[in-house]
Amino acid sequence: MLLYFRNKFTGKPTFSQGELSLILGVYGERVQRGEWRDYAIDCLPDMAVFSIFRSSRENPIYSIAKIPPRNFLKPPEYVVYQGGKTIKQSASLREVLEVFKDASA
After folding, report:
1. Which of 74, 83, 84, 88 is the most buried (most CB within 10 A)?
2. SS3 content of the chain, % helix, strand, coil (to 5)
3. Residue 57: phi, psi to the nearest 5?
């Protein structure tokens, strides 16, 4: 089960193809509206982070983090940050992405 949460070559946490598909779906909607312009994906030793930018010259306006559990029997935790502030946290990626759907209404 270790390979579901970590890259098999580096051992760092990564987003799965399904997770990236969900995130990029929300990202694409905001890009079409001209709200977001760039993103970056970082695989850090303790989490994977998808950062969203208005401009490539700025700090990220949002970051979506996947934090793998210490016990591999539990699901990963997903957190959305705005700046350095946590705005949503859940074991469900779909649930944390609802933050962006509410903001677009």
Report:
1. 88
2. 30, 30, 40
3. -95, 0
> In total, how many domains does the chain have?
1
Q: Which of 82, 77, 27, 89 is nearest to 48 (CA)?
A: 77
CB within 8 A of 12, min separation 6: which ones? 6, 43, 44, 45, 48
d(CA 65, CA 52): 11
Amino acid at 73: L
With tokens 């350095």, the residue in question is 84
Query: Would you state the pLDDT for residue 1?
Result: 31
**Can you tell me the distance from the alpha carbon of 102 to that of 105, in angstroms, rounded to the nearest whole number?**
5
pLDDT tens figures, 15-54: 999 999 999 999 999 999 999 999 999 999 999 999 999 9
Q: Looking at the predicted structure, is the pLDDT value of residue 55 above 80?
A: yes
